[in-house]
Amino acid sequence: MRLLLHNIQYGTGRLRRFAWLETLFRTTTHFPNITRFVRHMDPDILGLVEVDSGSYRARRKNQAEELARDLDLFHCHRIKYPDDGLGRRVPVLNKQANAVLAREPILRTAFHDFASGFKSLAIEVEFERVTFFLVHLALGLRARHRQLLELHDLLAACDKPRLVAGDFNTLAGVWEMRMFLRATGLLSANTRHTPTFPSWAPCRELDFICHDPSIIPTRFKIPQVRLSDHLPLMFDFELAGMPPARLADDSH
Fold this sequence. Notes:
Elements: E1 2-7, H1 31-41, E2 45-52, H2 63-71, E3 74-79, E4 96-102, E5 108-113, E6 121-126, E7 131-136, H3 141-156, E8 162-167, H4 175-184, E9 187-188, E10 207-211, E11 216-221, E12 233-238
Parallel strand pairs: 1-2, 7-8
Antiparallel strand pairs: 1-12, 2-4, 3-4, 5-6, 6-7, 8-10, 9-10, 11-12
């Protein structure tokens, strides 16, 4: 199976340093590039961070729904702020979401709001043989560490092999993840700690794919495509009873 993770910056494609205001630009001319890339990578599970669910940027269209329709995938998504949070009351912010798309049917979906942090959503998606968690953690160090504690408890309640992916915003360094990985028993697919941000000159490892030891890695790759300010992560893996991993050509 193949997992693809990408923080797509709401499909804006803005790459200039410190130009955060440019994330308010329209996305309709750039988002087809993301669609083509995902189609080429052909993932079984796709985790998308920073998805526009219908603001003026995307001409009121939900990017997750559009991509799922174009690629014939199952999907779920949710705004990444709690129902009673400030983000739900601010225009544009109230359309900022995260999404999971998949080739096989989704058996169960749960949306968990962490008690700390402005952005505080964890999406839990159960498939037949694996459970996948998608996160986008807080920018503040203390809030982020409290979120990791809550994520640990969510993972402890899971009885299937676990995959966890997302933008962990480990701005203080990869050491932030060490205790979490040790406590959960998960392994990072990015064993060389290759940086993923910013895409034009990567120097920080902010994006992670983590997996149970029972999940057997067959390939890990960071495609060098500048479709957003984050580079995507690709992880091929096997589960017990699965056929040999694909040998597709991924030239990107």
